[in-house]
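Following the same procedure, backbone shapes were mapped to integers, as reproduced here:
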Amino acid sequence: KHFLMVFANLGVPKSIKTDNGPAYVSKQLRSFFQEWGIKHHTGIPHSPTGQSIIERTHQT
């Protein structure tokens, strides 16, 4: 649902990078990304180094 709202405002991305958290590696999300033609790249979960851009945005 949140992805659809973002896509409506910003357009559909070619790829998305997330960590390997349970919410981001589910079959449902993988299927959703495939339907939209989005490549999904994952990093190390809870790793500030692997997710430096996201962590910087969150100021953690």
